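User: Reviewer 2 asked us to show a designed sequence for the structure in our supplementary figure. I'm pasting the structure tokens here. Could you produce the per-position amino acids so we can include them in the response letter?
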């Protein structure tokens, strides 16, 4: 019963632990990743537009950056237009207001370019 309750609560929660998208731009310790689907699916406004949204991702010393094959990378190895999967330090509620929000990355996986 306890395991079933945990699975049920996890499945019913409206949180996101990661995003998958293309890097729009790179700054010193931040990257901006395409996250239009995440922004459109928030309960804050049910956005129905064709605008591309990007989410700010903070890279810390603890952030693991790797290739799909598991090879370790650094921030300097990231390039605009790389496709990445970003796992957050803390899950993000779907009720989050993304304006000006920078999310902390726990792990970034870089995929082969399109």
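Assistant: Here is a per-position design you can include in the supplement:
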């Amino acid at each position: 019963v306890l395991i079933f309750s945990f699975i049920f609560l996890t499945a019913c929660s409206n949180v996101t632990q990661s995003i998958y998208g293309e890097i729009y731009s790179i700054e010193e310790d931040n990257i901006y990743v395409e996250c239009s689907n995440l922004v459109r699916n928030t309960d804050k406004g049910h956005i129905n537009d064709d605008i591309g949204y990007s989410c700010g991702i903070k890279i810390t010393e603890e952030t693991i950056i790797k290739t799909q094959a598991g090879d370790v990378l650094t921030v300097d190895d990231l390039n605009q237009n790389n496709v990445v999967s970003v796992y957050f330090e803390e899950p993000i509620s779907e009720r989050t207001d993304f304006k000006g929000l920078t999310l902390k990355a726990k792990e970034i996986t870089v995929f082969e370019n399109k």
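For the response letter, you might also mention the following. The beta strands are 15-26, 30-34, 54-58, 64-67, 83-93, 102-111. The longest strand covers residues 15-26.
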